[in-house]
Amino acid sequence: MELDLVGLLRAAWVAGILPILIASLPFSWTASFHGLVLGFAKRGKIMQASSKKFTLPQKFFGHFYVVAVVWTTFLLVTTWLYAYRTVPMVLKPFHYTTIANQLAGGSHIFSWLKSHSTSVEYKYSIWRSVFLLLLMEVQVLRRLYETIYVFNYRCSAQMHIVGYLTGLFFYTAAPLSLCCNCAPDVYKFVLNGVAEFIVKGKSHMPSMEFDWWEFTIPLVKLGWLQWIGAAIFFWGWIHQQRCHAILGSLRERRDQVDEYIIPHGDWFRIVSSPHYLAEIVLYSGLLVASGGTDLTIWLLFIFVVANLVLAAAETHRWYLRKFENYPRNRLAIIPFVY
User: Fold this and answer.
1) What is the pTM of this model?
2) Interval 49-72: pLDDT, tens
3) Which residues are the signal sequence here (predicted)?
4) Which of 46, 97, 221, 327 is spaced 20 to 30 A from 155 at the CA atom?
């Protein structure tokens, strides 16, 4: 963790954004590169049978969300515990027996409960990270549920292995980007806790009792930007859930290989990929909730937009080719724009 985590994450997001932006340039010399990038991004119905080399079943999408739930939960729990124990925003965060032990001369060599003086700005930044991870947890839990119970992926549906690896990268890097500024401190906090447990043993560990009011009240004390961002997030979250339910209902049997139906309802009235639009909306909510000052989260958001716009454009073209009666008033992903 002595590495520049923030710098590595930013470099990774830039490396993911640049190929998409280059492939989107309207020049003849980018046409072949556009085809290459699009080939990596294709999956499911828009992937031609002749291009199914180096592919995996699309049902492997579930792997993304298993990784996302495990990783996001770990980051959320450790960051929340770190915030509660070391940068409390309320008085007396420790249990009385812990304080008494410290006053009596308890060892501080491995103490993971030791609080240090921090600025108010730093405290708020830590609790903002907890808030963002909590929103991310809500998202990935729902996506895992939908992958298991809502989507009926066709047996023939495939995805390129590069797209699969990109998904694994995204759901590892995205939660980490939401808390990257405090991740090194949280990492040291966890190591100190493990070391103290090894040295002292379970019976000699400090009290782990929580005051649940003190555990959650700092989230309520966050600024208005966090709550506006949360409102935007849940606006997109709700519409994505509705759109995914519509898509899932179109294919109730997994053996329906060649049947495709035009989806209708909710944001499908205005765009071909409203679930992608909703994803952009909810990540814009995370951006607003972050305060909009962290370049890493801006790069995460730009990657989401670039990736989904590219995929939505190809999906829209597929709909137009597939259905002669496809609604002509629908655009690809951005209402009234694109």
Assistant:
1) 0.85
2) 545 677 888 788 889 999 999 999
3) none
4) 327
